Amino acid sequence: MNKPQPRTTRLHKPKRTVSIIGTGSYVPEKVLTNAALEKLVDTSDEWIVSRTGIKERRVAAPEESTSDLASKAARAAIEKAGISAEEIDMIIIGTVTPDMAFPNTACLVQKQIGAKNAICFDLSAACSGFLFGLEIAQQFISSRTCDTILVIGADKLSGIVNWQDRNTCVLFGDGAGAAILQHRPGSHGIIHTTMGANGDYAEILHMPGGGSRMPLTKENIEQRPNTIHMNGKDVYKQAVTAMVNAAHEALETAGLQTKDLACVIPHQANLRIIEAIGSRLGLGPERVFCNLQHYGNTSAAAVAIALDEAARAGRMKRDDYILLVVFGGGLTWACSVIQW
Ligand code: ACO
After folding, report:
1. Which of 54, 62, 130, 148 has its CA 20 to 30 A from that of 157?
2. pTM of the entire structure?
3. Closest to 226 measured CA to CA, from 242, 244, 213
């Protein structure tokens, strides 16, 4: 009797290129301006713009969850790619704000978009989640284990922000970005991804409560342990160093130099971080994509939304080399070099 073949037996076959064949994004309708934040905490538009570059951010409606944002971004990416939801073999969602502990958010998106043939799981790597997901998808497709993968970065950070803490609440926003990955004969794709992590710095950016280490209780809820806690200055330093090093490493492995890049899409956390990366890589602002003035830091969604907007704005043409670089809590970081 013929035994069923496990999918992993395909691993011995030659690797194949993996292309991003469609992107999509979604941000909630509600705009929260710096002027509106001035009414919530002791801050000013001038302070926020000069320290971060952020002018406004989007905030999801109370009934709108991460899977709702993710599903809207996914539908846009599916449409752009010209595929049907049934063709998707796997859904990976990078998020730190899942709808609930389980089932995973990817399963909830599967149901919303009708991707009934997809294996579904979430990935926790904070702001690096989308690029970690891209690389996992790349590995599954290049090894011929899957053909079509939907990768999403989605977060509803407004739900875990302490709206009384001016150090953090001005920085973040909600949104989702998605990409469909597939092997398309004769087309380009992801050339190399560098990834890294360092748990020694876990506490400079974390949400300490609400998990198994510190369950929420009547006694501790007043201290709001289930919100973002951050040492901004330490994060800033680590973010610039890690992203610049990751970019150099990824470019070297890909056999490219910064002069070869048409567009760099960095994590959208802070304009000063973005400018520091551009300057250390020797890139002028015209080659560094930035949309954080409109959305703030949307965590795993940030680089995914930026990729979609850059593509739709024609910032990269076919054959162009682009570089995506991210950094987030964990600490985690990643950099992908892609030929569009
Ligand atoms: N409005 C007014 N004053 C503020 C605000 C605010 N919203 N927030 C903080 N301040 C005050 C502080 O209380 C402090 O006052 P003090 O000196 O009296 O104690 C002072 O401003 C600190 O000012 P700076 O030292 O100039 O602040 P800094 O230049 O470090 O900027 C910032 C702070 C924007 C948080 C910066 O450190 C940063 O961007 N860090 C990176 C953080 C980040 O991006 N996190 C996102 C998650 S990680 C990621 O996605 C990469």
Report:
1. 148
2. 0.94
3. 213
